[in-house]
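question for whoever is on the cluster today: can someone run the full assembly for these? two chains, 302 residues total. i dont have access anymore since they changed the login thing
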Amino acid sequence: MSGLAISDSDLRTAPPGDGAARANAPVVLLGLALALMVGGQVYGFQHAPDRMMGHLQKIMYVHVPAAWAAFVAFGWVLWDSVLVLWRRSETADLRAAAAAEVGAVMTALTLVLGSIWGRPTWGVWWTWDARLTSTAVMFLVFVGYLALRALTDDPERRARWSAAVGILGALNVPIVYYSVQWWRTLHQPISTARDLDPSYRIGLWVNAAAFVVLLVGLVRVRYGAARMRLEADRREEARLLGGRAGAQRAGGVRAS
Amino acid sequence: MPRVDEWPYVIASYVLTWAVLAAYGWYLWRQWTQASRDAQNPGDFR
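^ ran it for u. tokens below:
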């Protein structure tokens, strides 16, 4: 039995499979994300090309929201990792792992989309620029986080180790964000929605909202699946142990 | 410098985004349904 505690907050965030409303929540979130993505992308494609970048500007509607969603995911990992170390919450551990996985997917997407944008803009698919390199490091830290979880079967040790790596990994977020200010880079400096032309601003916000809602929906599905898998494993273990104990009681297990 | 054809890069970005999200969503959905089935039918999996 793991030493991780099931707290009151765990009970409030019980497995999504417990009720129809909980089970339907990810479907509602994913449906909303899909609608926002389609709407945001159609809106974004209707505007004139940018004076400097031409139609390449449209890549912003997927590249930037994917990066922001990754930042949100790793902030989530940080929060839940602190809860793991502080309250030994099993729910926080499972949720941090779910957020780390979805965040890693979003970071991979950000890197590849940035590469596709960089080729016609900078003339190269990749360069060891501060923003690109720090993002790649952040991605590798979270790949390591996921690999680390597979290294041990002890749930408590796995939770503590991965919480420590999760906190370290999340500390990369401000480094990635401010890398364009702290070092000389090819990547454009930090820009806010105010720097954008209003015709691009709405499209960016709608797409950013879509990616964040998508992130929450995907984390809920990932967490729900992990929770159900854990419960199924525990039930199976209890059934096997119960069956063996019952067999021993009935003299069904012979000494070899 | 001659301007590159921008559309292939834009289209590749969107196709890739949708393909990655659809593939990952499908993978998660399969994990969910498999775990749900196993949780409801103990002893019936693996």
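summary bc i know u wont read the tokens: The interface with chain B takes residues 17, 30, 41, 49, 53-56, 58-59, 62-63, 66, 105, 108-109, 112-113, 116-117, 119-120, 214, 218, 221-222, 224-226, 228-229, 231-232, 235-236, 239 of chain A (CB under 8 Å). Confidence is low (pLDDT under 50) at residues 6-17, 250-256 of chain A.
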